[in-house]
Design goal:
Blueprint: H1 2-13, H2 19-33, H3 47-58, H4 69-79
Amino acid sequence: MDNIRSKDLTPFSNPEPHLADRSVMPAEKDVRENVIPFETAMEVPNAETRQAMLDTLEGKGLSREYSSFGEMMGDIDADG
């Protein structure tokens, strides 16, 4: 029985994490902190794209208005 207990405690006798644990630890930290592990940058749309976005919000230049996504997809499939 003493032999089993000593084997069970072996991983805890070394305070240094195992190599496999070291590779997982940063990912676990990212998950805990609810972040992604790389930088992101929000690109600012150019003037043409900003104007197109504003036009869409105001309903300018749209071919027609749809009451549902399914209706729009049906129209697109009919053109295809």
